[in-house]
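COURSE: Structural Biology Practicum
ASSIGNMENT: Worksheet 4, Part C
STUDENT ID: 0417
INSTRUCTIONS: Below are two proteins. For each, the amino acid sequence is given first, followed by its structure token string. Answer the questions at the end about the second protein only.

PROTEIN I
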Amino acid sequence: MLAASDPNMIVASYGIAGLTVAALWRLFLWLRSRPVRPDPWGAEIALQLEDVQEVCPHCSTPQPPDAWFCARCDNPVGPYHSFTPYVYQFSDGQICRADLSGQFHLSTLVIAGYLMLSIRFGVLAPLYCLAFIARLRSVERDLDKGKPVETKPG
């Protein structure tokens, strides 16, 4: 209670409280006076986006607005293809069709990714891995013979 009765401490606490209130007031005025930024998705941008045509992220082919799969590479397209659980299943199916048919670029990273994808299949993972490795061997044999491998453009 010694500090509460000391007049110097009372004046100091009033001074600190006053400085804090003044600083908060200046902060409020500074935030209020900042320039207002235009809405990035305002009417002008919306008009510009109406003329933009969507393209496939895999092969860059222009897509119609109601497309679910690319007509050129069969890759899933559309505004919600990775977000909607129902359509996501088709996206996974596209990945599995691509790797089991051998229509992918041969690289160590891609092959490792496809083998890690097999973890999602649970009990069927060994069957998927065997089918994938068998297709990979046939692709390697075709490459060794000089035979062109069937791949889709993209």
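PROTEIN II
(use this one for the questions)
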Amino acid sequence: MGRIEELDARIHERMAAMDKRIADRMAALDARLGCGSSGHPSAVGMVKSMSMNAMDQAEESSNFLGSAEDQWNFDDERIFRLWNMVRYSKLVENNDQYRYIAGGIQFNVLHSGFSIGDTDGDHVNACALEGSPIIYLCSGAVRYSRLMAAAYFGCRARIVEKSFAECFRDMAVMWVRRGNTFVSSAHAEEFAQAHGLVKVLEDPKLLVKATMLAECTLIGVIGHELGHQLLGHCRHNREQELNLEIQRNQEREADSFASSITSEMSEKGLKENAEYLTWIGLGTIIWGLAFAVVDYITKKRYHKADEDQTHPDPVERLFNFIKANPMTVKSLGVDFDDVLRLLAEAKIDFNVIR
């Protein structure tokens, strides 16, 4: 094939890609307006809409930042779109019981200054309320996911001086120091300034990628809490105290449910070559690593024993995800040795937290 033919073929490829892009936009718009057969936005339509809008708006960095006072947060609209992606996933919609229960669940963002029981809006946490069809996602969890994503892409682009493992370790130390899972807007900004993560916010392309990865992380978190509600974990008698083994097994069941959600989306991402969707697996792995490192530091500092924990060991949960999603993990080029290496690198000089 000569140069002219090659150029002609390339132009046709670009035109075909443009046609597909327009068709995808129209399908996504139809889904968001409820024009599909199911009468509500589909998860696929939402993913395409979110990812394409993100790339189109890469020049407008403000679209991916929180408010001026809390730029490491997301606005509620963006978070509720993530909830809808999980709520209307195939796993939920194709199961009559799941779909019925999910239809009555109220999803909320727990902002700074508000609390539900022992859960504060600045906690790195999400919760499904016992005895109520309500799920809360804390602002602290949003900030933490954004810091992790910024650290990941900042380190890959080499605009952050420390390695990803070192940033990870430092975030875990901040987490423990701030009252164990307490990350306010001021704490997030302080950490970002100290580690050069603000450079990611200043780079439009990196900001888009970091935003998408943070969203993918939160999809897994929301999926876990939805699993608690759909699997009946929140409907037991509050006066009846569950033993620790039952509580841990319920956490494993919710992890498995969330894993199925992320697996479904990641599989579609691989088929459609949608980079955004394949990052859902990466987001879950990074979140799992965060909990593993925090758990290690907490035990080191407070001498907590595993017997006291209501959740399974974080490393077990992380490896369960890797084993349950081999295709997703393979697509990321990650294996057990990589995870073990990251964990080992993150456990550097724990004297810093004393």
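ANSWER KEY EXCERPT:
Q1: The first strand starts at residue 106 and ends at 110.
Q2: The beta strands are 106-110, 115-116, 119-120, 126-128, 134-138.
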